[in-house]
Design goal:
globular
């Protein structure tokens, strides 16, 4: 039986609350710069959120921006940036051999809420209902908007996987390359979540919406006084290729995707289960042919909810408790929870460790919760490791979906 093709990352395009390029994003993570700011949204009022400020008109025309969605615009930005970063010239490529796989969570809520608000101003006269509503709200919208924008005629669709969706977009793109369905895969996740009041209202009703007098300190995973999630928007899409194709064209390689696993808790709508998270991590390690002690950085999912952080730390301790080499960090402490984009953005924050040898910190841990103690948890200040060979990226979501991705430093 022939071995599966090796899959590598050759481009990264992102927008986050604290940076619109990998270089700026990484610089702010190492410098401890938060992207969480005050935010006001109808029916909820004043709250906090991670907000992006990319230049949408760099890759879109104003007419396209008006017709489309915020999630689509984020996706178009990230796709343009990742293809440019990878050195992919679409004019020289067979666009039917390029696939687009975008992880999403809340897509469609924003447009429906906005439309209902609009017609409410006119006593619900549906003649004011936009004919753009249906294409804006279909589940494949962000991927479809990317395909339309760049004339990509290969498969383009979205993967609904709650807050594990960013990892799933990456995994799915890699699998389609290995199957030979496409020659280039654009994979990752996007989120427009801050533009729907419903997500804030729901988290508040659950007692899981973060608050703090200093917005920059609101997202505080592992801290004893953490009080919930900071909702954020953002996106990150990767250009993925088979190794031989990337080498043939002399592409820069950020890392090699060597392992992944997806499973389900099958236990609760919202509450996570450490046992299944443990199994997911071990599954990704097994697929990569690695021991826990081979992992340098575990990029945690922790959202700053009391039980969620505890369960994840229990799982991490069970898998990595004896590994002196493994360090644990968290990116949500800087940017909040970008929902469908979280897994993809959090991996991007750690990939530069292969080049610079640093692991960025988890900020805002002023009083570590004893139930969240894990060996080598990097808190408040980045740490120099010298050499980083493997990153394990964790992403979990509602209805019990778990995902883990292992990326290796590329050495040939």
């Amino acid at each position: 039986m022939n071995a599966l093709p090796r899959i590598v990352i050759t481009g990264i395009g992102l927008t986050s609350p604290n940076g619109n390029s990998l270089a700026d994003y990484r610089r702010n993570l190492l410098a401890g710069v938060s992207g969480v700011k005050p935010w006001t949204i109808r029916h909820v009022g004043s709250t906090l959120a991670g907000q992006c400020d990319f230049d949408a008109l760099r890759w879109q025309k104003r007419k396209e921006l008006r017709r489309g969605t915020r999630a689509g615009s984020i996706g178009i930005w990230c796709a343009g940036e990742t293809l440019a970063d990878a050195g992919i010239d679409l004019a020289q490529r067979d666009r039917s051999r390029i696939g687009i796989y975008v992880g999403t969570t809340e897509h469609g809520n924003v447009e429906t809420e906005n439309q209902i608000h609009e017609v409410a101003q006119y006593q619900f006269d549906l003649s004011f209902w936009s004919h753009h509503h249906n294409p804006r709200t279909v589940a494949n919208n962000p991927a479809g908007e990317i395909a339309l924008s760049y004339g990509i005629t290969g498969p383009a669709y979205c993967i609904g996987a709650a807050c594990a969706a960013g990892n799933l977009g990456l995994i799915h793109g890699a699998q389609m390359l290995q199957l030979g369905e496409v020659d280039v895969a654009i994979g990752g996740g996007v989120s427009e979540s801050i533009h729907t009041f419903g997500i804030f209202a729901s988290f508040r009703a659950q007692g899981a919406l973060a608050s703090h007098e200093d917005p920059a300190k609101a997202s505080r995973p592992f801290d004893k006084n953490r009080n919930g999630i900071v909702v954020s928007e953002g996106g990150c899409l990767y250009t993925l290729e088979r190794l031989e194709d990337a080498q043939r064209r002399g592409a820069r390689i950020y890392g090699e995707l060597v392992g992944h696993c997806v499973n389900s808790d099958a236990s609760d709508f919202v509450l996570p289960l450490a046992e299944r998270q443990n199994e997911c991590m071990r599954g990704a390690l097994a697929r990569a042919g690695l021991a826990a002690s081979d992992i340098d950085i575990v990029s945690s999912h922790a959202t700053a909810t009391p039980l969620g952080d505890q369960q994840e730390c229990e799982a991490v301790r069970a898998v990595f408790g004896d590994s002196a080499r493994t360090h644990v960090n968290n990116t949500k402490s800087f940017i909040g929870h970008t929902m469908g984009a979280a897994g993809a953005l959090e991996l991007a924050g750690n990939l530069p460790s292969f080049d610079d040898g640093w692991v960025h910190a988890t900020i805002n841990v002023d009083d570590l919760d004893p139930s969240c103690e894990v060996r080598n948890l990097v808190m408040n200040q980045p740490k120099r490791l010298g050499r980083v060979d493997h990153v394990l990226n964790l992403s979990f979501g509602m209805l019990g979906i778990n995902s883990a991705v292992v990326v290796r430093r590329f050495t040939g």
